[in-house]
Amino acid sequence: EAGASVLLLRTCLALLAFPVYLLSFLGLWEPFCKKVFFPFVLEKISTIHDKKSKKHKLELFRNLADFRSPSGELRLLEIGTGAGGNFQFYPPGCKVTCTDINPNFQESLTKNMKKNQHLHYERFLVAAGEDLHQVPSGSVDVVVCTLVLCSVQSVSSTLREVLRVLRPGGAFYFLEHVAAEHSSWKYFWQQVCFPTWKLVFAGCCLTRELWKNLEEAKFSELKVQHISLELPWTPIQPHIVGYGVK
Predict the structure, then answer these.
(1) Is the pLDDT assigned to residue 2 strictly greater than 90?
(2) Where are the transmembrane segments (predicted)?
(3) Which domains, and CATH codes, for the chain?
(4) Closest CA relative to residue 146, chosen from 245, 41, 246, 56
(5) pTM of the model
(6) Residue 234 DSSP symbol
(7) For residues 243 and 176, what is the distance between their CA atoms, to the nearest angstrom?
(8) Mean pLDDT over residues 233-244, rounded?
(9) Rounded to an integer, what distance in angstroms lies between the CA atom of residue 215 and that of residue 154?
(10) What sign does the dihedral 124-29-31-104 (CA atoms) show?
């Protein structure tokens, strides 16, 4: 019953988004999405998301400085930096390495770097979360990842890389949208939107149960909190927030 309704509504949604499916079939959507559409839309969505998640981020990043290395430095690597919306939460003097698979955020990234001159920006790497080979093992104190695990090819490979680059005692901070409770309407709509959403928003998956991946990764300590952000009319309200220690 639910399965049939999901399929029917998915088809209706696909028809509404037919131009995108056609462009995708012709191989034109992905380059356009990557260069123009996604950076533009993400900036708009991020502005709203940043407002709604600000208090959670302030709470989350409050103890970042606790993970300074013995020398007193805090070396931080961010996976999927995008436009740099998290910079404002990092403590002064923090040494930041930015990574993103998509290099087309330069304009808004530069703007945010200028706004946040309390940080040292070490380097920018075009890299996927699953492959941070340019970063030496055990070389960073903190890894941060917000709204990125939804669209990586492999969550477990990404978490393996996180644990590799972190020094022992270092921490991984996350805030991610996740699958809703299976018996809920929210989950029903996540299933309906799934294929079209994934195509339009550069591979973003709506129904990942990321807390399970985090529990399976080898963190010595893991704090995960399930929260709901007020993002009406979107299928991305359920989130998890927390950190894991290597």
Answers:
(1) no
(2) 7-29
(3) 52-187+195-245 (3.40.50.150)
(4) 56
(5) 0.93
(6) S
(7) 11
(8) 95
(9) 15
(10) negative
